[in-house]
Amino acid sequence: MGLGISDADVRRLTWRRLLHHDRLYADIAGPEFFAKYDSLVFLAGSASAEVIADVALSPWEAVKVRIQTQPSFARGLSDGMPKIIANEGFGALYKGIVPLWGRQIPYTMMKFAAFEKTVQGLYAHVVPKPKEECSKTEQLGVSFAAGYIAGVFCAAVSHPADNLVSKLNQKPGVGVGDIVKEMGVVALCTRGLGLRIVMIGTLTGLQWGIYDAFKVAVGLPTTGGAPKK
Predict the structure, then answer these.
(1) Cβ distance 144 to 202 under 8 Å?
(2) In CA terms, which of 61, 78, 138, 175 is 20 to 30 Å from 148?
């Protein structure tokens, strides 16, 4: 549709920011603190990376949802964004930024923290041998499984805000309170959740699987391992 920037572009920005922020926070914390509280560093790095990435994502999200719900509104980003700005002001592109943060920040934090802990749990309680004795194929299988499980948590924690973002961009002039009143809390948290779990679980599993496959291809170990003793 000629939108110019894709969700994948924003995700790549998030991963680059995440790697930078993790190194930054690890350096600030120091090796002893990082070794003991590595999950806190992962959470801080992923959260701050997502805050920055969502500044780029919000205008795209606003145009995307408007075109999805009103197909005749515009052909793509090139005419959709100027039309929103002309009709509703520049701020309309960021009307959903807070719910977007509410969706994407827990999503990204869960993606990395849950993945690390799930990998540890799988090697400790499910895989019948230590990681070092597993073949690369078996390790990549663990990466995909842990990624899928992390994706389930990602979908669950971010789903209410996902519904809010969609509704806010679908209906100009409507606030968060109006949407909560219209949908109800239960529907806000559960409507479409099953399909989103399948989608996000598969996507996250593939992301971690491909990421670790690349690491293996260049001679690096897969991500995560048995819990520290």
Answers:
(1) no
(2) 61
